Amino acid sequence: MSQKTVKIAEAKGRPMLVWVGKRPLTRVPAFPAQHVETFDPAGKAAESALADVDWTGWPDRYPRGGLLFHGDNKEVLAHLLANGFRGKVKLIYIDPPFDSGADYVRRVSLRGVQGTAKIEGEAYTLGEQIQYTDIWANDNYLQFMYERLLLLRELLAEDGSLYLHCDAHRSHLLRCLLDEVFGADSFRNEVVREKQRGGKHHVSRSLGSIHDTLFHYSKGQEFVWNPFRREVPERVLLERYPYEDEHGRYALADCTNFTVNRPNLTYEFLGFVRTWKWTKEEMLKKYEAGEVVQLGEGRIPRRKVRPNPEGDLIQSLWYDVPDTKADTDYPTEKSADLLTRIIELSSNPGDLVLDCFVGSGTTAAVAQKLGRRWIACDINKGAIQTTSKRLQAIIREQLEAAANAQAELEVADGADAAPRPAQLSFTVWRVNDYDLQVQHNEAVELACEHIGIERTRADGFFDGVLGGKLVRIVPFNRPLTPLDLEEVKRELEARPEEDRDIVVVCLGKELAADAWIEDWNRLRKTKGAANRIEVIELRTDPKYGKFIRHRPAAARVEIARRDGEIHVVVKDFISPTILERLEMDTPLFRAKVPDWRSMVDCIMIDTSYDGQVFDVALSDVPARKEDLVTGTYTLPAPDGKETTVAVKIIDMLGEEVLVTQRV
Fold first, then answer.
1. Half-sphere exposure of 462 toward its Cβ, with a 13 Å CA cutoff?
2. 132 has which bridge partners?
3. Strand-pair partners of 535
4. DSSP H/E element including 124
5. Domain encompassing residue 519
6. Which residue among 148, 202, 375, 405 is buried most deeply as judged by most CB within 10 Å?
7. Does residue 173 share a domain with residue 48?
8. What phi and psi, each to the nearest 5 degrees, are found at residue 343?
9. Mean pLDDT by 10 residues, the chain (663 residues)
10. What are the start-end ranges of the E strands in 541-612?
11. For residue 273, what are the CA distances in angstroms to 295, 298, 301, 452, 545?
């Protein structure tokens, strides 16, 4: 498949930020997408059930349904632009890295009793799996966000909106970036959201940070907007309306008029000459009814203000949608209530919603529930797996609800009726190959621990220090090349005062890299010479080589065809990676997992696998962490003499095993 180039319009807004390495984004290569999985439990029936959704302009190459992309979102966004989605997205929500200087991890545990495996009577969790690193060098973060905002602007419809979720680390810079990309006149709101209730103590002699920020920008001046009222929480009601009488709670407010030049409203009342809100006759009626009160002699009258029984209009302070992390263990998961509010405010049923930092999948999940079409992507494979499982469960629930109450659903068209699903299927696509992303990040952490490298968070180039030497870790999905070493050379040239030696850690190296290092070190043979380079090659190094040897997970599966049915029995499964982690973290005990199902997160089956796209005919995703997969399955056999059955098993660390058989 040929590669396309997508043109991007320049940013013309003001002000314009300047940073080291700022580059305009005028053209972006658009790589093809590989279709890797389909979830369509209703089959072709889903298409007729969704005839009322307007799919006009939907690209022919994609099936009508949700789209979940695995890949770098810059490449995914370019792919969408090159394949018919320019100007088609009605709402974009992004929750990008906050440049917080932290690694985010997902808590991983074995399935079983109370969600843990037992070792010598002690509860045990697999520990932490690095999901993504939110640490940025110099101005890389600004360039990263600048490029993606430019691409998102191109995808946004003329009446569409973008919400960017951030916190105090970079909110001031992101606001300037948004002004530059969209134009300052496209700014609509800065929403302050209380993300958690206040703590008891201040941290490091500063106020506790309990809020984050959402910036709302529109593409044009006319945009989708559905304001509504919300119920006021009891704690806010008591604080805002501290008094109570026989008619309910109330607060006291000013009775005077903001406009002073109103002769008909200027008069003496209870000893005060003012310009009041009402005529004297109306003022007397309210006073007699007890709605205007004087709290003491010589005090100006005040009026009673009562809460609206229908609730408050949504304003820019959101105190009722904190993070709950009720659905997944994803580290930066946002609450479904927050996304529900954004999607209902700025889109209508059937509209297309996009999230290119989808994480645990909350945006796509809420969009599916609210009858919106959706596109989601993430570079992290764990995020794709989490999102896929979540959406499978929601769609199955929607199909079950439709089957159990079809007549009721057809009649329920009132204001309180839940929107009908815009689609009952989704497909998973890969743009470039980022399968090693989770494993690479995790391997870096484990390698540092194993070798004894002290991580350096403040250095944008070197990853840590080992015995007084600077350490550079080459990405583990490729060998060390002379180009990597040239990068080290350029970095050292930019640091003329740096005299420490360098350790390069890699999983393999090209022969040319050895020659490069030999030439480099030949010039530094004298005693005390600076910046000598040595390599730790983890596959062959006699001291560290055993560490990185990877044995893939394996499964023993029996697949048979009898009496028009496919029978699948998973007899055994083993994940050497999980077992090694158990032994590494519990060196006093030999790891024993009594039931192979404790290591398995989910099982999916395709009864007509074509060798390219995995069509999910059955998915066994236990609802609770203490539940186990079944392991034994019976499915109807497809028509025809022979078919290829594929069984995909995903372990608790996200590693996949695919077993296929012709039956």
1. 22
2. 104
3. 504
4. strand 122-124
5. 437-475+477-537
6. 375
7. yes
8. -65, -40
9. 74 86 85 87 69 86 94 92 96 84 60 49 44 61 92 97 93 95 96 76 72 95 91 85 93 89 92 94 95 92 92 88 63 82 96 94 96 93 87 92 66 61 93 54 71 84 92 84 93 92 89 91 87 87 65 91 94 85 55 81 92 88 85 92 93 87 95
10. 554-562, 565-574, 600-606
11. 17, 12, 11, 80, 90
Residue 134 placed within a domain: no
Count the neighbouring beta carbons within 10 Å of the beta carbon of residue 374: 29
Domain end position, chosen among 275, 297, 312: 312
Sign of CA dihedral 72, 77, 79, 80: positive
Q: Say yes or no: 343 and 392 in one domain.
A: yes
State the Cα–Cα distance between residues 247 and 306, nearest whole angstrom: 9
- Give the C-alpha distances (Å, rounded to integers) separating 73 from 110, 165, 333, 363, 562: 31, 16, 18, 16, 45
Give, as one character, the DSSP assignment of residue 65.
Answer: S
DSSP readout, 588-625? TS----S-GGGGEEEEEEETT--SS-EEESEEE--SST
Structure tokens at 553: 């997970």
Residue 452 lies in a domain: yes
CATH number at residue 577: 2.60.40.730
pTM of the complete model: 0.72
CB 471 within 8 A of CB 464: yes
Q: Is residue 136 part of a domain?
A: no
Residues in the chain: 663
Q: Which of these, 347, 344, 319, lies nearest to 161 by C-alpha position?
A: 347
The C-alpha atoms of residue 243 and residue 7 are separated, in whole angstroms, by 61
Residue type present at position 580: E
CB contact at 8 A, 184 and 14: yes
CB 518 within 8 A of CB 532: no
**Which ranges of 55-139 does DSSP label H, i.e. alpha helix?**
73-82
Question: Pairing mode, if any, of strands 644-651 and 102-108?
Answer: unpaired
Burial class of residue 644, CB neighbours in 10 A (0-12, 13-18, 19+):
middle
| Number of domains the chain is built from | 4
Q: Are residues 565 and 646 in the same domain?
A: yes
At 502, which amino acid appears?
I
Given 537, 570, 585, the domain boundary residue is: 537
- Whether residue 18 contacts residue 177, with contact meaning beta carbons closer than 8 Å, is answered with no
Buried b (16+ CB within 10 A) or exposed e, 404-423: eeeeebeeeeeeeeeebbbb
Using DSSP's 3-state secondary structure scheme, residue 325 falls into coil
Q: Contact 374/353 with Cβ under 8 angstroms?
A: yes
Distance CA 373, CA 352 (A): 5
